[in-house]
Prior knowledge:
This protein is mainly alpha-helical. Helix content is about 70%, strand content about 5%. It is built from five helices and two strands, in the order H-E-E-H-H-H-H. The protein has a two-stranded antiparallel ribbon. Helix 4 (about 85-115) packs antiparallel against helix 5 (about 120-169).
Amino acid sequence: RFRASSLLSLGRARLAPRVSHAAPLRPPRRSRDLLGLAVSRGFASSSSQASSASAPSAGVTKPEAARHDKLGVLRRVAAMARPELPLLGVGAVCLMASAGVTMYLPTAFGRVIDMMPFSEQGDSLTSYAAFLAAVAASGAVANFGRVYSFRMAGERFVTRLRESVFASI
């Protein structure tokens, strides 16, 4: 008879990674990727990577260097996204309009519910409901504009990024 523990041990033995210690460790080759970040290629132990990465440049502390690298990367990304600024601007305006409509709709529906019991306000209720439908439709159009603008800007940016990566290979 098999026990569950024996099945588990068989599964562990079959799934255990096979590690070959015959291959020597090579030091990493440092290069720069598309955004200017240092990238290591090859295999190395964590101690050799830590020792090569721990040497700060002259006069700059580690936190300042890391902050400077992050700002540099953000500047490069912003420069690559510059052609998409018109689409991003349209998307931001549509985002604000859509958010405004989304925040206004609960208040407007509350006013419609408050007008319901009064039968003498039938004309104003109908006109207010029509106004509310127009506001909801404009919110839907703004939401479509936001999604379309941001998606197109993102796809164009990724396409340009992939072209530059494959061109550098």
